[in-house]
Specification:
This protein is α+β, with helices and mostly antiparallel strands. It has a single domain, classed as Gcn5-related N-acetyltransferase (GNAT) (Aminopeptidase). About 40% of the residues lie in helices and about 25% in strands. It contains 7 helices and 7 strands, in the order E-H-E-E-E-H-E-H-E-E-H-H-H-H. A 7-stranded mixed beta sheet has the order 1-2-3-4-5-7-6, sandwiched between helices. A hairpin with a 2-residue loop joins strand 2 and strand 3. The relative contact order is 0.14.
Length: about 210
């Protein structure tokens, strides 16, 4: 398996997660958002030539008053990595693909933190996915998501990057080994000037 940014030549037509909103976004909007509008980048996990899952990431901001750790932040908007969509193909569900894609998001947030600043990750999750994010260090915010979509409105969650960087917090919150390893490798990755893709590839090799 490999994870890389979506390419115009990749075949998306056969992807099916079972969530119509997620599938429609991936098939209709992921490409144009990445190559035409430049408002986000979609990373795909490939199982041979088949797309087993994807995560779409973009830059965003939060009001410090809306996040649990906001009291220690300046009063103006703070930069975050926004996890816009995450979908896993039906045949790959319950195999750890979602955790791998979330680990990539953490890795990219770490690079963003070093290069331009980042205080955490924000996700607008479907109600049935909230438990997944809570197991990985995210907390529900007392603000309403403005994200459009079919069905029940999304729930906004936030993960403080400082907590994800702390090994004890990683163990306490049930983060995956890839998340913890990404935290430990942050300093060394900065020293070597590694890109997010290179860091993620190193994590994958170390995890076997």
């Amino acid at each position: 398996m490999e994870i890389r940014a979506l390419d115009p030549g990749d075949v998306r037509s056969g992807f099916e997660s079972g969530n119509p909103d997620i599938d429609e976004f991936f098939l209709r909007f992921a490409g144009q958002n990445q190559w035409r509008h430049h408002v986000g980048v979609t990373y795909c996990l490939f199982d041979n030539a088949h797309i087993g899952g994807f995560v779409t990431l973009s830059a965003g901001s939060v009001n410090p008053r809306d996040v649990p750790s906001g009291g220690s932040l300046p009063r103006y908007a703070a930069p975050v990595l926004r996890l816009s969509r995450l979908g896993v193909a039906r045949k790959m569900q319950s195999t750890g693909v979602g955790r791998q894609l979330l680990a990539l998001a953490v890795t990219i947030a770490l690079e963003m933190r070093v290069r331009v600043g980042c205080v955490g990750i924000v996700v607008d999750a479907k109600p049935d996915a909230v438990a997944f994010y809570e197991r990985h260090g995210f907390h529900v915010l007392p603000v309403t998501s403005r994200m459009a979509g079919a069905g029940s409105p999304p729930v906004r969650l936030f993960a403080d990057l400082r907590h994800l960087l702390h090994g004890a917090a990683a163990a306490r919150d049930g983060l995956t080994p890839a998340d913890s390893l990404a935290s430990e490798m942050r300093r060394r990755a900065q020293e070597l000037g590694l890109s997010a893709e290179e860091v993620h590839a190193a994590l994958q090799r170390l995890l076997g």
